[in-house]
């Protein structure tokens, strides 16, 4: 991962993450799309001063679909706290990270990569835990409610 | 320079596609003789360089895909392949990984792991950075 400061070529005194704008093709590298299977994908786009990683998480059924959307929206809303998180995921994906050269200067490279890997593992665990708790709660509530009809 | 490149391509697009079809027949026969390593080598050798035409790239990809899926022995493949084909193979592997199709991705990941061990990280970086010869 190699990012450097690169002021905007079109507008003076502006410094924009090139991967978001895609105005100059010479500043961009080939995007890489890695699919584990049909449901899970990871898109990595790079440019001279920024790097965008988009993930699509596996969603087996409707419930997981809703849980994933709500949970990841919760995280994206608080993107300020994470710094490298993008407020809106890229079209077609569930969550996106935007790493710029400024992050690179402040934080260590391998730590950033570890963070993202850890994040991916944690999301899967969180979502399955949430699903289990929703099912348990639903079952308890239903049992209590239907007891009065026995 | 880009303009002359463009002219050359429109003439050669048809020629390249016929060459690819010719190659695919040769590869089919090699696969029937259970020589997947030879087949993949033939597929990679004729990769058209600097083509912008999507049809040529897709046609070549189909041929290479066929050969990749038929490979069982990855180590044997990598030891018999020349170093100059590592980069081309890596680019095709990434194209395979982007398809999302389960068996293709599994096979591509398997080969990718071994190829990285062999060719190093530079190979991956070259496949990322090469916008001229994109596969």
Automatic annotation (TrEMBL), chain A:
Domain of life: Eukaryota
Statement: the UniProt record of this protein carries the keyword Nucleotide-binding: no
Molecular functions per Gene Ontology: actin binding
Subcellular location per the Swiss-Prot or TrEMBL entry: Cytoplasm, Cytoskeleton
GO CC annotation: Arp2/3 protein complex
Pfam families xrefs: ARPC4
Keyword Nuclease appears in the UniProt entry: no
Major localization class: cytoplasm
Key words, A-Z: Actin-binding, Cytoplasm, Cytoskeleton
GO biological process, one term: actin filament polymerization
InterPro entries assigned to the protein according to its UniProt record, in alphabetical order: ARPC2/4, ARPC4
Similarity annotation: Belongs to the ARPC4 family.
Protein name per its UniProtKB record: Actin-related protein 2/3 complex subunit 4 isoform X2
Annotated organism of origin: Juglans regia (English walnut)
Upper taxonomic lineage: Eukaryota, Viridiplantae, Streptophyta, Embryophyta, Tracheophyta
UniProtKB/TrEMBL annotation, chain B:
Subcellular location per the Swiss-Prot or TrEMBL entry: Cell projection; Cytoplasm, Cytoskeleton
Organism: Juglans regia (English walnut)
Lineage: Eukaryota, Viridiplantae, Streptophyta, Embryophyta, Tracheophyta
A single Gene Ontology CC term: cortical cytoskeleton
Subunit structure: Component of the Arp2/3 complex composed of ARP2, ARP3, ARPC1/p41-ARC, ARPC2/p34-ARC, ARPC3/p21-ARC, ARPC4/p20-ARC and ARPC5/p16-ARC.
Family: Belongs to the ARPC5 family.
Pfam family, one: P16-Arc
Protein name, per record: Actin-related protein 2/3 complex subunit 5
Role, per record: Functions as component of the Arp2/3 complex which is involved in regulation of actin polymerization and together with an activating nucleation-promoting factor (NPF) mediates the formation of branched actin networks. Arp2/3 complex plays a critical role in the control of cell morphogenesis via the modulation of cell polarity development. Functions as a component of the Arp2/3 complex which is involved in regulation of actin polymerization and together with an activating nucleation-promoting factor (NPF) mediates the formation of branched actin networks. Arp2/3 complex plays a critical role in the control of cell morphogenesis via the modulation of cell polarity development.
Annotated InterPro entries: ARPC5 (IPR006789), ARPC5_sf (IPR036743)
GO biological process, one term: Arp2/3 complex-mediated actin nucleation
